[in-house]
Amino acid sequence: MSTYDRSMALTGQPPKQLSRNQKIATLIGFFGLTVILLAAFNVNLPNKALWLSISLGAITAGTVWFAWDMYANKEPGIKNDGVWFKSISSKGFWGWMAGISLTSFYIILYFYPEYLGLVAKGDNKGVIGLFDPLSRALSGNPASQWFVYGTLYTVAILAFGIKFLWKYRHNRYERIRTISVMFFQTAFAFIIPEVMARLNGTSVLNGGKLPYYDLKLVWPLNYYNFEKYRINDFLSAGNIGLALLIFGILSILVITPILTYKYGKRWYCSWVCGCGGLAETAGDSFRQLSDKTVKAWNIERWVVHSVVVFVTLMTTAVIYSYLGNDTSKYLLTKTTFLISVAVVFTLIFAWVMIFKREQLQKDAQYGAIGYMVIILALIGIHFLSGDGNVFLFKSGTLRKSYSFLIGSVFSGVIGTGFYPIFGNRVWCRFGCPMAAILGFQQRLFSKFRITTNGGQCISCGNCSTYCEMGIDVRAYAQKGENIVRSSCVGCGICSAVCPRGVLKLENGPLKGRIDSNQVLLGNDVDLMNLVNQK
Predict the structure, then answer these.
(1) What pTM value is reported for the model?
(2) Are 25 and 124 in contact (CB under 8 A)?
(3) Cα(141)–Cα(87) distance, rounded to whole angstroms?
(4) What does each C-alpha distance from 115 to 153, 218, 326, 416, 487 come to in angstroms?
């Protein structure tokens, strides 16, 4: 038998089978999933707290052990070798099976929770019943499908976060931001809201009711925050509730713009956001599947900004329905509110078109004009609708439509379920209104950019391949041009996988951040324009 290796690969061949440790770790992880699966079929587990601990512990231990055997004994550096040879990470059979399984789980979770054991009046059964002991220990309430989802979500970020830390342990930036998303998901999205629920009715709140509040969610992600029942819950909780309401408003108008100006959208999308945290940890193996074509980029821009318009109209309608016209009862009346919204949008639009128009492509300018006309036209005809209606629709209808189409189908079923098919940032690229708003701010008035050294680029393509947002990073690197894109979440993976140190994430002065000193490599660079700026 011949022993010649005819492969020309410089990095060697991908592993053809799992190691012994990886096989054992896989069995342990599947044992934990089997416990949950048995609960789904209503198998009687006498000590639910014990079996839940065993299940979550086995899933976490299996994932961590598998990752340790895969990365811990390797030299620090690029660890994306072999991803196109593995079925699960190259749209193969197991990739499609994973996508179908995740999508099915999300459909059941969002639309048919009774199949998971949710009981409206009575004790929960099945999977949700299995999580009851943990829910009662944290909040004092029985579990819901959202508590089950939040628990599994947090476990996934923690377990796969450890994997991510080992994989990119050579990069300080990746380690810090991964620890950050693990902390914010565990503390702010999972533990603190449950503790807040336990405080309801206590002397601290003077008998009031505090809403379940993920403190790191900012409008438009928490689009429901300005509904009547939420406002009433805030106000009924006294000073604490009022402080939370004020914090939510300041997050939109003050905190978010300042942080985006200083650090770009990465402060949220890659350091705080739970959706981004899951994409970066559990979805890391699928980042190379993001579509890099110009067609996908064009679809991305129109779809995500249409979602922003939708959520803006919906939120405006919800707040409008909560207000009244009696000036003696309402400091802000319905008419005054709509006029204020129209004025704010007009000012923003005028500022962009006067001072930042050159930074937008023609289709972006036309899109901005079109969206502006739509918003102002709908506000202008609100008087034609009856009381409680705005934009010719009931506010509740708009909210329910958004909650179903965007909040459920897009962000959950498609956004996470399609990781193994379309990459790990489908929701962030095409549907997240928060990412779109922060991207708008990042493009036009942020200090953040990714600088490049074109003279050092060897055109290996690692940066473009592993960009989860579908940006052709190599095209910028070859020209030595700064990367300033609305969609860039500042994950830094392009820099981490670059073998030559070409890419660097920086915060610098606004002047010259887009028209950087470029290297002419057959590209359409206006050299005279650059010379005249000197």
Answers:
(1) 0.84
(2) no
(3) 42
(4) 19, 32, 47, 20, 38
Please provide the size of the chain in residues: 534
Q: Provide the percentage of residues in the chain whose pLDDT is more than 70.
A: 79
Answer whether 138's CB lies under 8 Å from 150's CB.
Answer: no
- Give the SS3 label for residue 192: helix
Identify the residue whose tokens are 């976490």: 60
Nearest Cα neighbor of 320 from 295, 300, 341 is 341
Tokens of 211: 């809403």
Instruction: Please compute Rg for the chain using Cα positions.
Output: 25
Compute the distance between CA of residue 236 and CA of residue 460 in angstroms, rounded to an integer: 59
pLDDT in tens, 462-491: 999 999 999 999 998 988 888 888 889 999
**Which candidate, 210, 289, 235, places its Cα nearest to that of 465?**
289
What are the residue ranges of helices labelled H in 381-432?
395-402, 419-422, 426-430
Q: Which of 312, 220, 236, 305 is nearest to 268 (CA)?
A: 220
Q: 104: closest CA among 57, 37, 157? A: 37
Q: Which residues pair with 504 in a beta bridge?
A: 451
Cβ neighbours, 10 Å, residue 517? 12
CA distance 451 to 474: 12
Closest CA to 221 of 275, 185, 184, 161: 275
